Amino acid sequence: MNAKKLIYSTAVMIAAGAISSCSDTYLDLAPVTSVTNNNATETVDGAKLAMIGICQAMCQQYQSIGGGESGYNFMNGEAYVNHRMNDAFGPDQHNGIGMAMWGYDQISQSVDTWGRDNYVINYIIWKYCYNLIQQANVILDGIDDAEGDAKQRDFVKAQVLTLRAHGYTKLVQYYAPRWEDSNNGNVYCLVMRDHYTTEGAPLCTMNDALDLIYSDLTEAIRLYQETGLKRDEKWMPDQSVAYGIFARAAMIKHDYPTAQTMAHNAYQGYSIWDNNTLFSGLYADDNDKMWISSEVETDLYYWTETCMFTPNGYYTTHWITADAIDLDLYNQMDENDVRRMLFFMPDKIAYVQNVSSAYNPGKITESAFWEPTLVNGADLCDIKIGPTTADKKDKNKPYGLYNVGVYYCNIYKDNLFTGDLALIPQADPDGGTIYDYINIGPKGTIRLTTTDYATLYTLPFGAQFKFWSVAPYASSAYLFMRSTEMRFLEAEAAYYNNDEGLTRQFLNEIQGMRIPGYSFTGGGQALLDELRLAYRIETWGEGHNWTDFKRWNLPIVRRAWEPNDPSSGNWQTEFGLDTPVDRNSGWRMRVPYSEYTYNKEIDRTLLEQSYN
After folding, report:
1. Exposure string over 176-197, b if 16+ CB within 10 A, otherwise e
2. CA distance 560 to 571
3. I need a surface site. Which of 12, 31, 425, 498 has the fewest CB within 10 A?
């Protein structure tokens, strides 16, 4: 750790510990705190430390939140929300840890869970976001009187306004209805907390929240521009992040003129991942990532989110929680799309066999992915069940999908992965070395070389190779915002602003990078559908899937894996289910019961009238 990061780590522990102590239980009982506006913002330096505390609250262990509720297992802030409470609920990603942790009722958005205001799933995001908001309010209430450099004071204020707007944008995504179902934004859905207080606060409408978001970001952008200062670390917000949050909020409101402008402004100075970066494991910072978690491994240890789903994450390889792509989404990818190599799918049998026919000893075909003796349909469609050799008593018994999986992992590690392989290996306490879903050592199931063998930990149908992590704690620069997301938002907004030429221009730019010779000339609904498909493929696993489908007002369809049926999907049987657009008042989480018990300012009937 360098000196700057050491200083920040120390500051974070002080600031986050001081302020979050008053907010991590504020929904359960009236908080008691010694932190006041005066001592939190007595000086500009103090305000900056407090701002760093909010950033750390987006990337820290929340061991005590939820009173031991299982839904908070390994809660680590922003990454947890994006991975396990967004992508996990969407149609495109089989989120291994999310499926194992949440289960059928939560993934399906059953009324028995999402419809209960006392269920854990309805207050995880509520608590997390209002924690950020309350910490921001402490700073904003007193920062104008903070002693110190005026430019630095205004810059910190801009950062805190950006963070508060981010918290409210998240809340609107989950607790507000879709814009078209909101009575032009006049539906009550949140609690307005725009100043720090330990007292109750009234309900506010979707418009009230969006007005505050717009106001905060407008002021933040003005201050960023006037100060001309730059952030110290990428895990802090800056002007580009403020533009990006503005674009996200405007898209929720279907305010497409604002969204197009803000998204365009957001990505200035950033570049789209080239294909070399795309295959680098994405554990490091790069010029497409606009906002990231801290890369310092000691900030989260083994609670880092990438520990839970990367090919070399310790929990992935020991807890069988690997993530995979939906087969139907994959099948819509162009056959020449380089992104197909990021996922273990039936076409990888031919790829592996082309490297060496010995890598497919059982001469299996793509239908093997639906063979019940080779794929565990009851456990994330994992292929590690074998067998790896021919059955001497039954020569017709299929075998060898395990072998193909091992060889693909090894080929990917040696020939496709463009990151620093020296940073990847994890020492397995049981012996051998962890790479991408395999353990390589002097003993194992499949011989790789004269000295090395490999054993498969887990490899589900559709396993991802897009995101990797760094040993020993599986840490990474987990992305919170990416410039390519902003380009897609600009292109989508442009479509609704009757600028299909700009939409096609961007679509052809990004798809042309991934698909040789790509060119799309269509318009109308076909153009919008193509843009959405490209967006889903390019940003797979980046934390937007469920909220995008909510914003698009599209149903979720998940097709279950069926034994011996290659026309079926690749979802574990219990998760092969649909989520219609009208489920739970249009995919709204309920204001948690703990808010009612603490906050006596709420008129509960205003909320009940908005649920259907």
Report:
1. bbbbebbeebebbbbbebbebe
2. 5
3. 498
SS3 per-residue string spanning 215-246: HHHHHHHHHHHHHCCCCCCCCCCCHHHHHHHH
Integer distance in angstroms from the first to the last C-alpha of the chain? 52
Could you tell me which residues come within 8 angstroms of residue 454 by beta carbon, excluding any fewer than 6 positions away? 406, 409, 410, 438, 439, 440, 444, 445, 446, 448
Helix%, strand%, coil% for the chain, nearest 5:
50, 10, 45
Q: Evaluate whether 325 touches 87 at the Cβ level (below 8 Å).
A: no
Among 466, 518, 422, residue whose Cα is nearest residue 273:
466
153-174 pLDDT, tens digit per residue, is: 999 999 999 999 999 999 999 9
pLDDT one-digit tens code per residue, 510-560:
999 999 999 999 999 999 999 999 999 999 999 999 999 999 999 999 999
Instruction: Decide: residue 392, CB within 10 A, 0-12 exposed, 13-18 middle, 19+ buried.
Output: exposed
CA distance 170 to 212: 13
In this structure, what token pair is assigned to residue 336?
């020449």
Residue 8 has pLDDT above 50, yes or no: no
Q: Give every CB contact of residue 296 below 8 A, 6+ residues apart in sequence.
A: 1, 5, 9, 475
24 pLDDT tier (thresholds 50, 70, 90): very low
d(CA 2, CA 6): 6
Task: Verify cis geometry, omega within 30 degrees of 0, for the bond prior to 398.
Answer: no
Instruction: Specify the residue for token string 């262990």.
Output: 61
Residue 455 bridge partners (DSSP): 439
131-158 in b/e burial notation, b at 16+ Cβ within 10 A? bbbbbbbbbbbbbeebeeeeebbbbbbb
d(CA 25, CA 48): 24
Q: Cβ neighbours of residue 10 under 8 Å, at least 6 residues apart?
A: none
H/E element holding 126? helix 124-142
- Rounded-to-integer distance, Cα 75 and Cα 162, Å: 23
pLDDT of residue 429: 87
The CA dihedral of 577, 580, 583, 587, to the nearest 10 degrees, is 100
pLDDT tens per residue across span 218-262? 999 999 999 999 999 999 999 999 999 999 999 999 999 999 999
3-state DSSP of 537-597: HHCCCCCCHHHHHHHHCCCECCCECCCCCCCCCCECHHHCCCECCCCHHHHCCCCCHHHHH
Residue 381 has pLDDT above 80, yes or no: yes
Confidence class for position 478, pLDDT limits 50, 70, 90: very high
Q: Are 52 and 33 in contact (CB under 8 A)?
A: no
**Structure token digits, residue 116:** 């209960």
What average pLDDT does the segment 286-314 reach?
Answer: 88
Q: CA dihedral in degrees (181, 186, 187, 192; nearest 10)?
A: 140
Nearest to 461 by CA among 551, 546, 561, 558: 561
- Measured CA to CA, the distance from residue 69 to residue 536 in angstroms comes to 32
| Reported pTM | 0.94
State the Cα–Cα distance between residues 462 and 319, nearest whole angstrom: 17
294 three-class SS: coil
- Residue 434's DSSP bridge partners are 426, 439
Length of the chain equals: 612
